[in-house]
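thought: fold this chain, then report.
action: predict
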Amino acid sequence: MKRAILNVIFIFFFLTGNLFSSQITYEEILDNPSDLQLNLNYAKQQQNSGNIKLTIATLERLSMLYPENLDIKLYLLSILIEMDSSVKVDLMVRTLMNDPNTTDETKKVIAGLLSNTKKEKKEKQKSKWFAYLDLKYSHTEEDNISGVTKSKKNLQENNLLPYPQIDNRLVVEYDKTYTKAAALTLGKNINDTSSMFLNFGLDSNTINKKIKGDSDVVSSSVSYFKILGNHYLSPYFYWNRPNYRKQEDSNSKGVGINNTLIINEKSNINYSLGFANTSYDNNLTFSTANESNSDVYSSFLRYNYNVTNKIQLGAKIILNRTETLKEFDSFDTNGFSILYSQILPFGTLKFKNTYLQNNYDDKETFISTSITRNDESLVTSISLEGQINQILPVLKTLNKDNSIFYSFNLKQSDVSSNIANHDILRNFITFGLTKRINLNVQ
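observation:
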């Protein structure tokens, strides 16, 4: 219906110019920034090609150049409604309704656009339950899976000893991990401002050479989402159950709350508070496993700034507290991370650096009677993710619903510690594919 109204509004433009006779280049627009017909044709051309952001930018510029041209403003309003940009829509509707040049007929057209939008939203609300299944596969290569120290030595009873010999079974440097996973998400739209989600997952992790570390992980979580003014609140609870080969098994439970505060279109603040408990299982092989039980209190505060519609900068402050039955395994964490994110034609590119300090409560006397452990870590990652069609357009015929996603990640973890045993450098490369199946629960 919106499209029909839009065609009526701009029938004049369609009759006075052939929008598809030739492709208009951006250079032509730069040479003729005030040419009304050329710029309108260019806006329509970008809309047809899916470049809505550039369509909006062109129409906003034309609206400033021709402030009395209501047709341009209506065209821009219809695009903003289609983009569901509520802040800009509200501002533009108020401006048009208060403009003495806006005729009664134009006001009726605006009311029609808004009315049809509300009807479409109501139609979408008829199916309040939704569900989808994600089938995932990833391949990770790591150059130091056993955590061989930088000095190739370990500290024991105040003495530096050679690190155990690499045998490609128990102690391995380079290795590969294959992960096959399925994750089911059930969701319910409670009303226009709230919803809830249930997640269930199963991961199977297989290591190529190292005989320890293979695992199956069962996971579940429930979360609630609520919009309160400019606040986007999300409390959550999760439970994970890893089943390791030749290692201790455990249960992890966690609860917390996230909130994003929208300051304006350019910036927002995101913060979180959380608590997690990990309990290990004692058995005949691991009779003291429960001594590694831990409680983790976590928090962070992040500021995000949208440089443009496609570029975001983020800075995060991190504060955590980990408590275990062993004092020498209890520690405080503080640090920060910096994120750069950019939307590209072939996916979303992210650069992230995270710096952390871990200050431990007590000495591990079996290792050293004089040194209390302190670590500093720097984790650097570069990732690219998006729809597979964006990097392999030839697959569009097989992936018509854009439901296959790819991911690529490079990561380096550099931990510097005053205890040689924890002074470790690792590098990772991960490739992943995800197939999403919409289950259309009614």
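thought: worth noting. The longest strand covers residues 175-191.
final: tokens above.
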